[in-house]
Design a protein that fits this description.
FAD/NAD(P)-binding domain; 3 domains; five-stranded parallel beta sheet; 13 helices; 31% helix; binds flavin-adenine dinucleotide; binds 1,4-dihydronicotinamide adenine dinucleotide; Pyr_OxRdtase_I_AS
């Protein structure tokens, strides 16, 4: 052990890497974390979860005030204007506070931050900015970056990826979003609320890959009602830019007549890919899978002794909380404990309005596995949602027909992101729908809709 500079060296300080480093240090291991960005926190804190949620929150308040939605509550505004620079400044402040917070936590836990890009020399040695660093265990937590669309050049002015879309200096007149996934819908919502016309071009026949079919259909209707144009089953065949104006050529995915869309902003959001370039994985003989990701076993060990991997760089959902949980687990495994992540119970949340959340199996996937029972409850029948004039959405509980064990929960609601945690806990504890149905829920709350959906699985909801 003493032969190495560190017991644990983590490459990448995103939610996976920084959490792994802190937990390793908490467990008494001498720990360093290499990060090539100027600030800690990875994609999530710098150009992902945090700045996008800052703009989603601010644009939501703006739309409420500007759109006269508060008038019905007796609150009248006059002359609401947008100060986009200030909105960006407030976002930057949140990012700075949180990335600074990780730096503070590193100091507090005595994690050494090695500033620079790390590349393997062998399974226990990396080069960081020309400095040789050795460690008994090395954790790859290098995350992911934007998947490029062949033939479409991102200039971060007219054609942007998510990072560019978080920093547009003015509200576009027309934004074309390529890809109707999480990023496209969240950032498309931001700019629509701030005044842009938004057209989402999606290759397949539904938005939101991986989500429950009914949720995908219902939320598509809600986005359209909000004024977003959705061009489904449509592919982009080319984008040209002249004088800041893009011409986007699209045609039906199955082939057919092409048409062009003119836009002053184009957002490319067709997925993300693992960051492995520059790691020099050849030096340790670590091969990638077909999708360019690093494979691990359940303890996050790779095929190379002493090398572990977590987060967006490995298969599974590309989510910050998944990366964080894997960060804790990998550190515990390195320390000889048993770190486990239940990959079947990881919630996903889209932070639009309403929010869209799910955990566990979709109805389609559950049906493939066996017989199921489904209970649904609309927020239009939930007293708190009705009081708040906030009735869009529903809760759907999917349970095994024989055992009643909850297999999946899907929620569309202004508070879906918060409510889904209750479903995740229930599922982690192996709850049946009856367990949820007979758990007392405070009144009046949106959470009662989850209880009622569980009662609906039993065929006995009270309020519908
Ligand atoms: P990352 O956060 O990508 O961090 C990896 C770090 O490693 C980076 O800082 C990188 O600079 C560094 N690195 C890479 N290679 C090297 C090297 N060789 N040497 C040194 N350092 C290196 N997820 C959610 O759960 N909720 C959300 O609301 C959400 N919103 C998002 C919004 C956007 C716009 C985007 C793009 C993503 C969002 N995500 C969200 C996804 C989330 O950001 C990722 O799942 C998460 O950041 C993955 O964490 P990670 O630690 O694996 O990698
Ligand atoms: P995504 O995988 O969610 O969606 C990409 C969409 O683009 C898919 O619907 C796909 O069918 C479509 N597509 C692919 N190629 C296309 C083409 N050529 N033309 C038109 N459409 C095409 O990817 P996205 O939105 O880029 O997000 C990446 C990841 O970031 C997600 O997997 C998600 O996990 C994470 N993320 C999570 C957030 C959250 O948790 N709230 C927020 C933002 C990102």
């Amino acid at each position: 052990m003493a032969d190495y500079d560190y017991d644990v060296l983590v490459i990448g300080a995103g939610p996976g890497g920084y959490v792994a480093a802190i937990r390793a240090a908490q467990l008494g291991l001498r720990t360093a974390c290499a990060e090539s960005r100027e600030t800690l926190g990875g994609t999530c804190l710098n150009v992902g979860c945090i700045p996008s949620k800052a703009l989603l929150h601010a644009s939501e308040i703006y739309e409420e005030a500007k759109g006269g939605h508060l008038t019905k509550f007796g609150i009248d505004f006059q002359g609401v204007t947008l100060n986009l620079d200030q909105m960006h400044a407030e976002k930057a402040k949140a990012v700075k506070e949180l990335t600074g917070g990780v730096e503070f936590l590193f100091k507090k836990n005595k994690v050494t931050w090695l500033k620079g890009k790390a590349a393997f020399q062998d399974a226990h040695t990396v080069d960081v900015n020309g400095q040789k660093v050795t460690a008994k265990n090395i954790v790859i937590a290098t995350g992911s970056s934007v998947m490029p669309l062949p033939g479409v050049e991102v200039d971060q002015k007219t054609v942007v990826d998510s990072t560019g879309a978080l920093a547009l200096p003015k509200v576009p007149e027309h934004m074309v979003v390529i890809g109707g996934g999480v990023i496209g819908l969240e950032l498309g919502s931001v700019w629509r609320r701030l005044g842009a016309k938004v057209t989402v071009v999606e290759f397949v026949d539904q938005i939101l890959p991986g989500f429950d079919g009914e949720v995908r259909r219902e939320t598509a209707k809600l986005f359209k009602k909000q004024g977003m144009e959705l061009k489904l089953s449509t592919k982009v065949t080319g984008v040209t830019v002249e004088n800041g104006l893009a011409t986007v050529t699209v045609e039906p995915a199955a082939g057919g007549a092409a048409e062009t869309l003119t836009a002053d902003a184009v957002l490319v959001s067709i997925g993300r890919k693992a960051n492995v370039d520059g790691l020099n994985l050849d030096a340790i003989g670590l091969e990638l899978n077909k999708r360019g990701q690093i494979e691990t076993d359940h303890s996050f060990k790779t095929k190379v002794d002493g090398v572990w991997a977590i987060g967006d760089a490995i298969p599974g959902l590309m989510l910050a909380h998944k990366a964080e949980d894997e960060g804790v687990a990998v550190a515990e495994n390195i320390a000889g404990q048993t770190g486990i992540v239940n990959e079947d119970v990881i919630p996903s949340v889209v932070y639009t309005m309403p929010e869209i959340a799910g955990v566990g199996l979709t109805e389609e996937a559950a049906k493939e596995k066996g017989e199921i029972k489904v209970g649904k409850f609309p927020f239009a029948a939930n007293s708190r949602a009705k009081t708040n004039r906030d009735t869009d959405g529903f809760v759907k509980v999917i349970a095994d027909a024989k055992t009643d064990r909850v297999l999946g929960v899907w929620i569309v609601s202004s508070l879906a992101g918060t409510l889904i945690a209750e479903a995740a806990i229930a599922m982690e504890f192996g709850a049946t729908s009856e367990d949820i149905a007979y758990t007392c829920h405070a009144h009046p709350t949106h959470a009662e809709a989850l209880k009622e959906a569980a009662m609906a699985v039993q065929g006995k909801p009270i309020h519908i």
